[in-house]
Amino acid sequence: MQYNIKHLVFASSSSVYGANKELPFSVSHNVDHPVSLYAATKKSNELIAHAYSHLYDIPCTGLRFFTVYGPWGRPDMAYFLFTKAIIEGDAIKIFNHGRMKRDFTYIDDIIEGVVRIIDKAPLSNQSLDKIIATPDPGTSWAKYKIYNIGNNKPVELIKFIEIIENILGIKAKKEFYDMQPGDVPETYADINELVEAVGFTPQFELETGLERFISWYKTYYKID
Fold first, then answer.
1. Is the peptide bond prior to 181 cis by the omega test (within 30 degrees of 0)?
2. pTM summary value
3. Which of 92, 125, 143, 169 has the fewest Cβ atoms within 10 angstroms?
């Protein structure tokens, strides 16, 4: 190799769990049934990282992010679109009639988890044979490990919107729709392995995280 890579940490996504209905989502669960192209690309990233780890002895850790939100986020994300529309008096589109649940995770908690894992390069799991009938997707004989990183507290979408309304002091105009193709009804992170590995504990309740985001939003877009 041209560079001596001590530890590759990469972002994956809770979307890889796809059609899995067993909650909370564990890194030991099968993720062979993605329901969106985005999920399929994230699963592909994990497979490629595993191959590199095996072929080139590169320690690799994948972190499956769960619905990240906060300042400087992507403007096409739901919380960003909701805030903009509510402030401007436009209707917001609410899919699955607001009954979806998401494990919303504040950006500072994500960053804390990433920083903690940097110095925790995975070792080969010698308890696994190189060919096994029922492999554990979260570990490997290669120097490869997967962790969930989430808030561990799913919240219904309609409740999420109510919190934004309360912070803004404005009631949203709501349009309700059925579930979108490629979406899932619930995400819920089992973070026990990350807790055991690096002592990760989410610090931000949803109300606090959204208050921080909306404060940033108003400052950034110069809204009184």
1. no
2. 0.93
3. 169
